[in-house]
Amino acid sequence: MIHALSVASEAYPLVKTGGLADVVGALPDALAPHGIATTTLLPGYPRVLAHVGGAEVVHRWPDLLGAEARLFAGMLGEQPLLVLDAPALFARDGGPYGDPQGRDWPDNWRRFAALSRAASDLASGKVGNQRFDLLHAHDWQAGLAPAYLHFAQNARRVPSVLTIHNIAFQGSFDAGVFGQLGLPPQAWGIEGVEYYGSVGLLKAGLWAADAITTVSPTYAEEIRRPEFGMGLEGLIASRGDRVTGILNGIDPAVWNPATDPLLAARYSADNLEARIANQLAVEQRFGLSGAGPIFTVISRLTWQKGMDVLAGLLDDLIAMDGRLAMLGSGDAGLEQAFRDAATRHPGRIGVEIGYDEPLSHLLQGGADAILIPSRFEPCGLTQLYGLAYGCVPVVARTGGLADTVIDANVAALDAGVATGVQFDGVTPQALRSAIARTIALHREPARWRQIQRRGMAADFSWDNSGARYAALYRQLLG
Fold first, then answer.
1. What is the value of pTM for the model shown?
2. What is the rounded distance in angstroms from the CA atom of residue 225 to the CA atom of residue 220?
């Protein structure tokens, strides 16, 4: 049995801001059948502490980067959980990374350096009877953990893996914080944490980790190029074959239209007609009326997600006889653009600003197609949920979107393998054409059902991904 420590800033269902939480929450169960026992380490946010209330204290740090800290042991589902309770760092209102107004906490460098240092101490055997064979760090918030391991003195050495969920978020901070990280002077440099004169948390992990994974094979290749590497492409390229892509999975216990309690009606590929009850529920929730396919957007409203291009095409979508149910939040200007479109097109566009997990399930179960015009997308999970629910994905050909959706071109339709619509380049012309193609396909019910059923038959569970992670762990352990 291999004992792995997975460290991250969030994990479903305890704390979630995006797909990172889904992956971290699902990975332990995915690895268990392959002889990997995974313990997850999370920050002690108020909600996480409430989950482990009354749990055993297994370790104390009188001074963890300037903060008193305790380590609680609990359970995340059926898997072990460790929680770093440092009230000065994590006992705050707001989200994991920012205050109630959405502003980043100015000491995020200290908060997540402390999490990384705790992970390094655990992995290197410095914490009581805790023993691990391997450290798996996720994104910039845990990026310093492999670096702490690398520079640790008189410590047990274990291999480390760093997974990039989105290279656009790098954890870059002023150089002045370096002296407070507890790293030796030699850690300041290109071979260490220095990144264009700043402290780079993700960069440090990419340099120090024994293996780097991204969340899709295409994204692993894309980030070697300047247009996707966000300044880190040179370092990624220098790591060579230590960088691999392992596609994310989804949890069929949570995302399955045949068993989902959050739907108005459950269904399978064999009784797609039952989806109509969910469609009616979506229409009622968003005030939609009339005919035409319902497109949905379940997304952060950002430039990365291509929402600026979509916002400029909403009048065209309605003119082509489409409808839209949008759930998301983000850029204030984009939020207003979608609200304005809903005002212009009452009964055809409905908008809810924010995030609502139950509503996201209903939208996947009741909308006809989901629009994902991302400029880059490391993996993407909403298209996988769409495939599972017969909500046909309309996606830009990038990253994990390219790896998971088969375009409904003539050959794929004739062969019966199409699962969605892809387009090249996030431009108004390309997206408009993709929307028009989707509406044309929807007008052919038999063909549309074929696309839905093919997508629902695809296996994007964690079975294959768990096996690949387990194989990587064993490779690193020799």
1. 0.90
2. 10
